[in-house]
Description:
Layout: H1 7-17, E1 22-24, E2 27-33, H2 37-54, E3 59-63, E4 66-71, H3 81-94
Antiparallel strand pairs: 1-2, 2-4, 3-4
Amino acid sequence: MSKVYSESEITQKLQLELPHWFLENGWIRRKYKTSGWKATLMVVNTIGHLAEAAWHHPDLTVSYAFVIVKLQTHDAKGITDKDFELATKIEQVIGWQPALEVKADGSKSALEGTPSEDQRFKYIKYD
């Protein structure tokens, strides 16, 4: 059985490792704001892929311009390492901005990333 974290342990881990996530009613939770329906579907599909690959499934609330992700380990009846690890992976993938990446050798990524100055191409509102 996985270790179930106490509320104070959860709050501390979130502050240190996942500052955009918070504890709410026994779940760790994060809201991703998007530019509209197509972007919301991309976020949902990405989270769905990661959750299925991890075999740990979040609860999602989906609306026109946002996605709320809630994680809890149901069989443990609390928050475990499974929740923190999946939240971390979701955060890494959804928040990935190739244009800001710097390789180990100091060079920039060859991937340009979504043009942030052109509203037509914006799809997620980065924190």
